[in-house]
Amino acid sequence: ALAYRTKGLTKVYGEGRSAVHALRGVDLDIPQGEIVVLLGPSGSGKSTLLNIIGGLDRGSAGEVVFQDQNLAEMSDRQLTLYRRNHVGFVFQFYNLMPSLTARENVELVTEIARDPMEPDAALALVGLRERVDHFPAQLSGGEQQRVAIARAVAKRPTVLFCDEPTGALDSKTGRAVLNVLKDVNEKLGATVLIVTHAASQAAMADRVIHFADGAIREVVVNTSKLTPEE
Ligand code: ADP
Ligand code: ADP
């Protein structure tokens, strides 16, 4: 089954002579349950694509089909419900609330989700059982990103979108975070879409989408998926 199918997805920022063509007709299939890595240089349109299929932004033209519904035809309200019920986001800089503990950061999501996990169970899943009462400033970068992952998965999302999730981490810590994402994929069955400019992250993917200048250049199905080395 497919998690997503995009058809002719286009995004233009601005207009006239200053228009930026960020997506130039993207046709993409993302199978349910896979780890998909979207790989391409900075400015190639990766975040734009992720934000549109994640329901944070809208395309200028084309379709994004999720479970037989075209996101392009949804009202703002429907799009909000789609995000709330189906989508988790992980960003490069964690976006944690500094005044809240790890558990309280996760509770921001579990208090409004339909069928949430226990906050402590989500934190245990990412290896932070012993850190639930810590504040972000008391945690390392890798631990902060794990809290962000716990917050994103606590609603049991259908899809987890990760935009440069290891971009602020050293390579060893980054690999550990990628292993957490692999666990989330295996244990919760969530489809995971990772946006990155780092080719090293392709090894853990089921499918690598090579992206450049607003378009797909190549799709590589990975038949020998590797675990990121610790
Ligand atoms: P990537 O994630 O691959 O770095 P982006 O999707 O962020 O690429 O950007 C693609 C192009 O769209 C770039 O030229 C960028 O400058 C432009 N862009 C992104 N967001 C906006 C915006 N909100 N307004 C105008 N231009 C934007
Ligand atoms: P609500 O009406 O419940 O506040 P939102 O649309 O603000 O709904 O958020 C729904 C989900 O999408 C939340 O789980 C939130 O984590 C995520 N989300 C929405 N927008 C952003 C954003 N700009 N940055 C990070 N996460 C976002």
From TrEMBL:
Q: Which GO terms describe its cellular component?
A: membrane protein complex
Give the matching PANTHER family. ABC TRANSPORTER ATP-BINDING PROTEIN MG467-RELATED, LIPOPROTEIN-RELEASING SYSTEM ATP-BINDING PROTEIN LOLD
Source lineage: Bacteria, Pseudomonadati, Pseudomonadota, Alphaproteobacteria, Rhodobacterales
Report the sequence similarity comment from the record: Belongs to the ABC transporter superfamily. Macrolide exporter (TC 3.A.1.122) family.
Task: Specify the protein name.
Answer: ABC transporter
Q: Name one Pfam family in it.
A: ABC_tran
The UniProt entry, under Gene3D superfamilies, shows: P-loop containing nucleotide triphosphate hydrolases
Does the record's keyword annotation contain Transport? yes
Molecular function (GO) terms for this protein are: ATP binding; ATP hydrolysis activity; transmembrane transporter activity
Domain ABC transporter: from-to ranges: 4-230
* Organism for this UniProt entry: Pararhodobacter oceanensis
Which SUPFAM superfamilies does UniProt cross-reference here?
P-loop containing nucleoside triphosphate hydrolases (SSF52540)
